[in-house]
Write a structure and sequence with these properties.
heterodimer; A: mainly beta; Neuraminidase; five-stranded antiparallel β-sheet; globular; B: mainly beta; 26 strands; 3% helix
């Protein structure tokens, strides 16, 4: 690597002032096919290590999405060389594998599940795929052959059963009240059934649904994994599109458990602000989505169509990350995600048991930024996107793919939170 | 009026196929000072008659509509109406009295008829005829004579002029309903003074910030003087109902609340917004507190009810079901300056039924065309206003469900909601 490239990488990696560095690509120009890194899910390994799965590529959409795995035995200070689990090494090296996420069984088996492109493309190759899976019984050293988990056909799917569903799980599943793994997902409506917005972009019709893995703790083979679905079909969570309200655009659900056992789910939309839903029965049924406000009857929490994850911190309070703009930055249209996905702001959330909206939020405070400097083949400026969160030993860390390029970690310190006041 | 004009008016009067005609202006060119009629509130008179209060206007160059309040009554269930009489506001163009707008009636147990309105004081906030104090008068003889107007105190709101010089901008647009304690309760649009508004410069009026609040007239049945009316406000100030504007989400545009009582005694309030669809709120304590507004859907998890920034009243039918009127499109979101307040036609009707176990307690059928102007103004051409602005009211006397509406803000008409019209409308089951 040339010195100037190293210098650029060092400089750019430091922009968001990370506390941890998990992965730095080996090039800037994509020549090493590792310059796209995202959907960065760090989780507690069954052996006490920190583990991570993510989606790597030359750049998102380059045709070489692959699922990667790494682990750290020193609380994230250093990370093992990543291992490719599945997917092409470079464009043209086979069907892409995207958006992997982990589940761990009680025995310590690590499952990784992803969206496997099988050839037919409905909405996009990185959305249209079967649910494929592999597992490791030795802490990620070796992995089983991939298998396919059956998915039930949805009324939102293409009428042709040969065309797989369009779906993305983007956050780590959480345990439900009976110990099963539960997560929300974005379901993109098939081109065969969707309604088309006036402003044709990638921001097409989508809804939020949920899936529950019923038998992971029995260590089933991938083909025997059972899933039950909720908010499914005509019960899916829909949020009206700003220009054509009959179109739903609801994506990237993020879940936290409330002290009263309810589930609280926030989701991104194209309304310019975040929406949420609540479940009082552990995710089987959900209320119709509502605007997420700072407090009851307060102002909505702005966000472009970009990730808005919420996490529970080690002290039981919540932190919500968002870009704190309506998507119309400097007059741009809300679909223009090349402009509006920075900086990353954090809002502190606290449980309000007697309120209609059970989590209220502080004003937002800038958490990190990349100054809008474009980097890598994708030339993105996204920050705070597709992250994950760990709270080991009271150390709250946001693990994030900075500009979908570097994989970094940044602590949410007590000092950062100290001036955030929740109404 | 020439024969040609009379013929055109007859033709336009019939366009929406009304069952009742309450008022036909004497001219269409404003020459008789009566060609603008709206906020048409028909109500049960204490003597068993039908009564009506509305806002009538003439137009003054550079000033716009100059409003006054008129009253009429019908002794034959709406077939014929008395000649309107002026209740408040200027008598004619030469009268320097400030305009009076958006009146609404309340009838006490003794039979006293109160009329309360927005009394302009010659000062203008965003819009002249939104800006005014609250005034009222009453009649103890079924509208034959009226007391002198009196000012009714209003509290200073955080949404009003911080200097206290410009009166508030507020509109009550529907008849108040009885609350569970016997008072009268109604929602209103409260426009946010420019000095404290999220947007201090706007492209057009649908970007003017507004919230929905409620007022409760607590002592009407004591027959107080208007100045002594006791009013308690709810969803007031920072608890007001806000709905994000479709482009500027920190800006609230929420207006024209419409209330119905549910069988479980909750209050259900639909309101117009600038999101492209109707929103609603619920109160479990007779209007003291309200949930945050939510999109109004056909059913839980269903599609929203599309609507521009235009009236979307909901009423209880005589059989206990509900009807809601809307335009069934999201409005013009593309034009600049913003024109999301239209087109205000056609008018569609949706049937609503109570769903006690649902999150949204009223579910709705698909929409069915109820009335339209065909894009034609009252002069028979597409060049003049062809919109409905459904500042309407509803009566259910003797099981006869009637929508009383200003057609193109010109004619005042009534149209029955017949069982035959509703019979093919289906509401999703719980």
């Amino acid at each position: 690597m040339a010195d100037d490239v190293q210098e650029i990488l060092r400089r750019e990696m430091a922009r968001s002032e990370p506390d941890y560095v998990v992965y730095a690509p080996k090039s800037i120009d994509g020549s090493t096919f590792d310059t796209g890194n995202e959907h960065f899910l760090v989780f507690d390994g069954p052996d006490g290590s920190l583990m991570a799965v993510w989606t790597q590529s030359t750049r998102e959409g380059a045709g070489d999405h692959r699922i990667m795995f790494s682990r750290s035995e020193d609380e994230g200070v250093s990370w093992a060389a990543p291992k490719r689990l599945v997917g092409p090494r470079w464009p043209g090296d086979g069907n892409i594998a995207s958006w992997g996420y982990p589940l761990i069984s009680r025995s310590g088996r690590i499952y990784v599940i992803w969206n496997q492109c099988q050839g037919p493309i409905d909405v996009a190759d990185q959305f249209t795929g079967t649910m494929d899976c592999m597992y490791s019984d030795d802490m990620g050293q070796t992995w089983s052959e991939p298998g396919t988990i059956p998915m039930v056909r949805s009324p939102h799917d293409h009428w042709d059963p040969r065309v797989p569903s369009n779906w993305i799980v983007w956050q780590k599943p959480i345990r439900d009240l009976q110990g099963r793994w539960f997560t929300g997902f974005t379901r993109w409506l098939s081109v065969a059934v969707r309604r088309v917005p006036h402003n044709r972009t990638w921001a097409d019709e989508s809804v939020v649904e949920f899936m529950r893995y019923e038998n992971i703790d029995e260590d089933p083979e991938p083909g025997e994994i059972e899933i039950s679905w909720s908010a499914w079909g005509d019960q899916a969570l829909r949020v009206p599109h700003y220009s054509d309200p009959l179109i739903s655009l609801a994506q990237e659900p993020s879940l936290v458990r409330l002290p009263d056992s309810r589930l609280f789910c926030v989701m991104r939309t194209i309304t310019g602000y975040i929406w949420y839903s609540l479940s009082t029965d552990d995710g089987r049924t959900w209320c119709s989505p509502r605007p997420l406000l700072r407090k009851d009857h307060g102002l909505p929490i702005l966000a472009p169509i970009c990730c808005t994850p919420i996490y529970e911190m080690s002290d039981g309070r919540y932190i919500l990350f968002h870009n704190n703009n309506s998507g119309r930055v400097d007059g741009c249209e809300p679909e223009n995600t090349r402009v509006n996905r920075r900086p990353s702001f954090a809002a502190l959330g606290e449980y309000r048991p007697d309120a209609e909206q059970p989590v209220w939020f502080s004003e937002s405070k800038q958490f990190m930024d990349n100054d809008g400097v474009r980097l890598g083949p994708r030339q993105g400026i996204d920050i705070g996107v597709y992250p994950s969160f760990t709270t080991r030993n009271g150390n709250n860390v946001l693990w994030h793919p900075e500009r979908k390029f570097f994989l970094l970690g940044k602590r949410v310190t007590r000092e950062f939170l100290s001036d955030l006041v929740v109404p | 009026m020439t024969d040609g004009i009379a013929q055109t008016l007859r033709q336009e009067l019939a366009r929406t196929q009304p069952d009742y005609v309450a008022y036909v202006p004497k001219s269409w060119d404003d020459s008789t000072d009566d060609s603008h009629n709206e906020h048409f509130l028909v109500f049960d008179g204490p003597d068993g008659s039908l009564m009506a209060i509305w806002t009538q206007a003439w137009h003054l160059p550079k000033q716009g509509n100059i409003n006054h309040i008129v009253f009429s009554r019908s002794e034959d269930e709406g077939a014929a109406w008395s000649k309107p009489t002026r209740v408040a506001g200027p008598r004619d163009r030469d009268d320097p009295t400030h305009m009076a707008s958006w009146a609404f009636p309340m009838v006490s147990k003794s039979g006293r008829i109160y009329v309360v309105w927005n009394q302009n004081q010659g000062l203008k906030g965003w819009i002249l005829f939104h800006t005014g104090t609250m005034a009222g008068c009453y009649s103890d003889d079924n509208g034959a004579t009226w007391s002198a107007p009196q000012d009714i105190p209003m509290p200073h709101s955080p949404y009003d002029d911080p200097e206290g010089e410009i009166p508030p901008e507020w509109i009550v647009w529907q008849r108040p309903i009885r609350d569970l304690a016997g008072g009268y309760f109604v929602g209103y649009s409260h426009w946010v003074n420019r000095a404290v508004a999220t947007l201090q410069e706007v492209e057009s009026w649908p970007q003017i910030e507004s919230v929905v609040e409620f007022m409760r007239f607590q002592n009407i049945d004591d027959d107080p003087e208007p100045r002594d009316l006791r009013i308690r406000y709810s969803a007031w100030g920072e608890d007001a109902q806000r709905v994000p504007h479709y482009r500027y989400p920190l800006l609230s545009v929420t207006q024209e609340p419409s209330l119905v009582r549910l069988p479980d005694e909750r209050l259900f309030c639909a309101m117009r917004t600038n999101s492209g669809y109707i929103w609603y709120s619920l109160s479990e304590d007779d209007g003291e507190t309200w949930c945050n507004p939510r999109p109004l859907l056909r059913r839980d998890h269903g599609r929203p009810l599309l609507h521009p920034v235009s009236c979307s009243p909901i009423y209880a039918l005589s059989d206990g079901r509900y009807v809601l009127f809307h335009h069934n499109h999201r409005g013009d979101a593309e034009s600049r300056p913003e024109a999301t307040h239209g087109p205000r036609r056609p008018v569609y009707l949706v049937l609503g039924e109570f769903r006690p176990d649902a999150e949204q307690p009223v579910w709705f059928s698909d929409s069915k065309l109820f009335i339209d102007t065909g894009g034609v103004g009252i002069d028979g051409t597409p060049e003049t206003n062809s919109d409905f602005s459904l500042y309407a009211s509803f009566t259910t006397r003797g099981g006869n469900d009637v929508l009383w509406y200003p057609d193109r803000k010109f004619f005042l008409l009534g149209k029955r909601i017949r069982p035959e019209f509703l019979e093919d409308m289906r509401v999703a089951e719980d």
